[in-house]
Write a structure and sequence with these properties.
This protein has 252 residues and is α/β, with parallel strands linked by helices. It has one domain: Aminopeptidase, CATH 3.40.630.40. The protein is 27% helix and 17% strand. It contains 5 helices and 11 strands. It has helices at 57-68, 111-134, 170-177, 199-205, 225-242; strands spanning 11-14, 22-26, 72-75, 97-98, 101-102, 141-148, 151-152, 155-156, 161-164, 185-187, 212-218. It has a 7-stranded mixed beta sheet, with helices on both faces. Strand 9 (161-164), helix 3 (170-177) and strand 10 (185-187) form a beta-alpha-beta unit. The chain is globular. The protein starts with 10 loop residues before the first strand and ends in a 10-residue tail after the last helix.
Length: 252
């Protein structure tokens, strides 16, 4: 077993009684690594780096769940244990390296070890998300919350917020149309579906015909309470405007 009983489940549902027609998701909300994995052999300096989790994303998603009164499905384990935004066959579902950060505990994993992480981490997360979506009386918008590092291999990223989509671009484009002044916001940046980052959208929203978007926020904008409040307010206002009845409902 990867998780000891006292360590809890691999995923959690926050604000389960939320009434907004929105389901929030945060696949990289936690830096927690179960004791059985011995810290994955990470260097101490890397233990809470962006390779381990999406810095600030969990706090942002929770604040948005409060403001919108929406349920939130959040992973409780580090994405280095298993990246719940990747399918089991993806090489980076259990990455050996992320940017410059080595995860020795993921090197040369046996098929049995990989299967254990799929069954104990990925599968419960997917099941919880599917069950949460099934509970809505009115089909909700599916909104996943992520953060990205201000630099990538030493190169600054000149962006504040990215709006990513898979096959359905309706909500991403409407959010861009109501973008808050003062924020640099772009479609499909700093990643896109071509990078394999829209698994949750493709697996849960597209088959159900749900409006959906993946929101990426530069992590230094949400590293403290004030930043989380500011960005949560901006994103909630944008979502409110973009999801108004009749607002681009039939947009291509």
């Amino acid at each position: 077993m990867i998780l000891a009983p006292e360590e809890g489940a691999s995923a959690e549902l926050v604000n389960s009684g939320g009434t907004a027609p929105i389901c929030l998701v945060c696949e990289h909300a936690s830096a927690f690594i179960p004791a059985s994995l011995d810290g994955l052999g990470l260097a101490e300096a890397d233990r809470f780096s962006h390779a381990v989790w999406d810095i600030g994303a969990g706090a942002l998603a929770r604040r948005m769940a409060e403001r919108l009164d929406a349920p939130l499905v959040a992973a409780r384990l580090s994405r280095l244990v298993y990246d719940c935004n990747r399918p089991p066959e993806a090489p980076d579902a259990m990455p050996e390296k992320s940017e410059l950060v080595e995860a020795p505990g993921n090197h040369d994993l046996s098929p049995e070890a990989r299967a254990a992480r799929v069954s104990e981490v990925y599968a419960p997360f997917q099941a919880l998300l599917a069950a949460t979506l099934d509970r809505f009386e009115i089909p909700p918008a599916l909104v996943t919350i992520h953060s990205f590092s201000p630099t990538w291999f030493g190169v600054p990223r000149e962006l504040d917020i990215g709006l990513l989509h898979d096959a359905d671009d309706r909500l991403a484009k409407r959010l861009l149309a109501v973008a808050e002044p003062g924020l640099r916001i772009a479609l499909n940046a700093p990643y896109s579906a071509a990078d394999g980052v829209t698994h949750t959208l493709a697996a849960h929203a597209v088959p159900r015909g749900l409006q959906n978007v993946m929101i990426e926020v530069r992590s230094d904008l949400i590293e403290d309470e004030a930043g989380v409040d500011r960005i949560a307010g901006a994103l909630c206002r944008m979502l409110g405007a973009a999801l108004l009845p009749g607002n681009g409902k039939d947009a291509a």
